[in-house]
Each structure stands twice: as structure tokens, then as C-alpha cells.
Fold these 4 entries.
Entry 1:
Amino acid sequence: MWILFGVASGVFTVVSLILGARKKNITWSTLCALGFTALTMLAEYGMVNAWVLEESWASLMDVVPTMRTALTIYVILAIVLNTAALLLSRFLTKP
């Protein structure tokens, strides 16, 4: 499920950048992008929680260190790109 949320976040981020460059309203696409970013993080946390309840320590030791780095980069990139889309939209719509 977290993969679907991550893909949706990426799609909405690209839509925000495209709409921002075309001087369109990007409020909803940016909100959806950041919302799906949060849902991705919650789904990932839920997966780790299930592994803890099952006491699957090998899974945790394999996945968590790598995913922490990947998810940190993912969240920072999502925030930066959506902020760039908002700023692009604001600067292009000024008369």
C-alpha cells in the first residue's frame, strides 16, 4: 500500500510543477501530494509495526536501516518540489 501512496504523491507533485509552470491553481494538487506523502509514511510505519508484533526481527534488521534513509530523502524531496511549485506559481501569476 505504501508503494501506491508513494506513486500517487509523485504524480501529484509532477502535476503541481506542471500546473505551476502554466500559471494554474495548484492548491489541490499540492495538498494531495503532501497528503499522500504523509500516508506513505503512515503505511510504512504500519508495516514496521506489524513486523514488531510478529517479532520478525530479521525483517526489521534488513529493511529499516535502508528505508529510513530512502524515506527521509523522499520526504525532503517532496517538500522541496512542492514548495518550488508553490513559489513558481506565485512568481508567475504576479502582474
Entry 2:
Amino acid sequence: MINTIKSTKKITVLLLSFLLLLLTLSAQANSCEGSSVNNSVSVHCGEAPSATFDQDGRLWITFVQDQHVYVSHSDDSGKTYSTAVVVNPVAEDAEHNGENRPKIIVDADSNIYVSWTRKTSPRFTGEIRFSRSMDGGRTFDAPRTINDDELFTGHRFESLFLTESGHLYLTWIDKRDLEASVELGRDYSGAAVYFAVSSDQGASFSENYRVANNSCECCRIAIAPRGPENIAILWRQIFGVTTRDHAIAVLTPDGKTMEMGRASYDEWQIDACPHHGPTMIQSGLSGDYHISWFTNGDLHQGIYYARYSFDSNTPEQVFRVDGNAGASHPYLAEYGNTLYLLWKAFDGQNVNISLITSADDGASWTKPKILQSTSEGSDHPLIVKSENGLYLSWHSEELGYLFEKFTADTAGVRLGD
């Protein structure tokens, strides 16, 4: 009799716990609806999050919700978050998709820099926006527009990078030269890549410098350091008439473009933008550049990896990561002497986030290991690096915002073993 009562109580407790969980999940889901009314602003309810760690190990994150860009932080690696602080008090149509999301950087003085693209019409026009916090994220400066042409045209897909020397670079896709060519009655393919530099912690920016004409119109730009003050950038470029492969170049704080070369030879013939930007990091072992990208070219199809050396000006160790039609949006990181590459792929039922690693600077790779999976909509996967390891940063409709640590052991067995 006593055992029966205890069992009944256990069942009752389990049922109540289950009902409480359902109610909590329902409340969380409902709290994301009409959030501007009930003030439930959070990274789980927002869209297109980007994250970074500061030098003290605090996680900072930016995201878009209800036409505002927000910043929040976490002192427990993403388990809980502070109340979000609005960056742009006046609502504006901030871009919030996988290729075009707000960016965040925190410097050694705990100053916070945030960039994003403001859409100015439904027809692919926009402005490059920037704000900073000089008081540890409590308040932000009034947002500024960085493109200096004052044209109602496309300025989109910005990327933000801070060098060891303290130079803050903003690069983006720009259509001012297309507009000028149209007025002169000249043909012009694609857009152009532009950049600007701040040497005073974001207080001011240089004039806008052009990197190259005839870039693809809507792919993210990858950035990595090239010495203490220069940067290397990787972007999708139009070669010839309709070949959309990748170009690479080095940019300097005084507006120069150097060492420009071709970084991929896929012969993708397409007169449209595929919305698939590349990823790039500099190797801590060789100093070369690890690059990865998606292509559907005549020579290659799928996600590819290569190592690029500015000494030889050519991609080497070209390796097909995933040749399936549903593979997309790779992302690279290096921790210790191990190189990590993850991407998302649709297998017909689920979207999977997969990971491979290399312990020999990209010469060979492990077999793929699935880190996460969902049958619902999801964002691009990103990797965030800290002194303690690497984290998967990923937003999905099913899981909300996921910030999860992973290791080299996660990737499983090496190819050829």
C-alpha cells in the first residue's frame, strides 16, 4: 500500500513537472510574439545573432528584433544573458539574414563596436551603419552611416574587423559605380567592394576606398589579418562575363589594395548572386590562409576547402568537403594546432550541422560528425573562439539560440584510418 502511494506520488510529480515544462515552453514561445508590446527582447526571440568573447571571457552578442539592433552579454558562456541594450533607439529596417547580419567586436579596453546594414527600400538598396559603446555596453553612440556617397543605391553585406594595431576596418558590397555607369550608358556587371578604416576606436572613419569593380552583389566578405595592421579579404568576384568564383586581396589602413589574386577556379557560370559567401582564417602554423566556399561550377560542385598562399598566389590542397546538393555555408576556425570546418546541409528531411577537423594544417581531414540537427528553419552556423575553446553559435526555430562548446574529439575518426 505504501509503495503504491509512493509510486502514485512519483507519477503525479512527473506529470506536474511535464505540464510545467510545457507551460514554460509555451510561455517562452508566446513571449516572442508581439515582443515590442510585452518587452520580451532576447537573443532567443531575435534573429541573425553574432557573438564574440572579450579578453575577460565575457560573451557578447548582437541580434535584430523588431527593427532594432540589440547587444547583450553572458558571464556563463551562454546559459543566461543580461537585459539587452538597444543600439539604434530609432527603429530602422536592419538586415537580419544569414549572409547579412549585425557584427560585434570588443577591444582590449572593453569598447564595443557594432555594424549592420540598413535596408532603405525593397529593391536591394541600403546603408552601412555603425555604432560603438565606450562604457562597457551600457549605452551606445548614435548610429552613423559609413558609406560616404550619399546615393540611394546598394551598400550592403558589411564585414567588421579589428587588427592588432587597433585599426578598425569595415568592408561592404557597393553599387555606386554601377549607378555611375548606367548614367553614362555603359555596361557594368555586378557591384563593387569598398572599405573604410577607423584609427581612433571608431570615433571617425576614413573616406571610402574601392577594392575592385564587378564583385558579386550579395555574398558575405571574409576577413583575416595580414600582419599587425593590414587585412586580407576574400569575396565572390565576377571573372569574364558570368564566371562567379572568388578573389582575394590585401587592404591597408591608408586605402591601398595589394596582392590581389584569384582564390578559386570552379568556373561557376551564373548571371545571378547565389547568396553564398566564403570563410577564411590565417593559419597559425604556416601563415597561409585557410579558405572554404560553396560552388556549383562546371569544374566543382559543393563545399570546398583550400589553402591559399600569397607567395604562390594560387589555391593549394583543394579538397571537396561535401558534394551533396543541400550542403551550404561553411565556417572555419583554428584552436591550438587543430583546424575546424563546419557547415549546414539538408539531407531531404533534416538540416544537419556537420564538423570535420585537420591536425596537419589542412593536408588531411577527419570524417564528418553531425553536431546538431533540426527539421525546422535555421540560420547559418558560426564558430566563436575563446581562450578555453570553440563554440557553435546557431539559431533555429526549434532550439532558439544555441551556444554550445565542442572539441576536436567531437569530429570522430580520421579519414583513412
Entry 3:
Amino acid sequence: MPNLRAWLELAPTKSGSVVPPNYRKLTDAVRLAAGLEEWPSNALRRSYASYHLARFQDAAALALEMGHSTTAILFAHYREVVTPDAAKD
């Protein structure tokens, strides 16, 4: 995706992991600073799927991108969680 490429261009190195070694410690600190007691499992993946489906309305392409063999999981868990208006750029 073009926006992913733009974010990756900001990485200090052009190869290797884009996740810092202390990722968990950093995200825990941010979560606590935001007053969030818990962080649901796969929260970022789930948010991505919900917003992407609402924005682009292409379940087949999203299922392929996420590694799902069908769109059933998308429709069961991510459809209509986010409105198209909320997913606009």
C-alpha cells in the first residue's frame, strides 16, 4: 500500500525489522499513559481489518491480504464495526 511505503521510508534502516527490540515495553508505556488497563489481543490487526473493509469495501482483496482463505471471518467479525464515514482519509 502506498501509505505503508511512505511510513517505511521514515525507517532509519532500509532492511531488517521495523519493530524496535523494546517494542513491548514501549507499547506498554504508551498504553498506561493513555489510561488503558488492557490491550485486546490483535487489536491493531482487528482495527486495520475493520477500517480497511469500511474504507475500500473489498472483502476479497482484504481477505487475501490478511491471509484468510475466505471472506467469512471478515463478515463475521469486521463488517459494520466501522462506518464508511469514520474510515475516510
Entry 4:
Amino acid sequence: MANTSSAKKAERGSRRKSVFTSRRKKAMKDSVKDVSKLVVGKKAAEAAAMLPALYQAIDKAAKHGTIKKNTAARMKSRLTKQVAALAK
């Protein structure tokens, strides 16, 4: 438990930020899951249509520091590769 007033203020800010971070992380994970399900179901056209939303969610998470930039690039690369393999 925070003792000083500045520590209490920092804790409030931290709680608020964690709400935004968890929202961003959940949106990203949900997008990844949706595309992965479409890839497993061999629905290439639908998966390709979902990629822009996936990119947006991942890029937002990387922009705000929820995940690192290289992690975002790796995730996008791997999922794009899977969708492209389905299209062939």
C-alpha cells in the first residue's frame, strides 16, 4: 500500500494505464485469434479481408508500448505468411 500522496497518485495513474493496456492487448489477441481460426478453417479470402484490422490492432499495441516493435513485425509477418500460403 502506498504511503505518500505522490505514491498514491502514481498508483491511481498506473491502474488507469493498465486498463488501457489490457484493452489494447485483448483487441490485438482477439484479432490474431480470429485470423488464426480462419487460417485453420482454410478460408483464405476471409482471412485476407481481416488482415487490415489485424495490422491496425497490432500497430496500436506497438505504438503505445504494449508490445515491442519487433514483436509486432514478427506477428504480422508470420500471420501474413500463413494467409499467403492458403491463397496459393
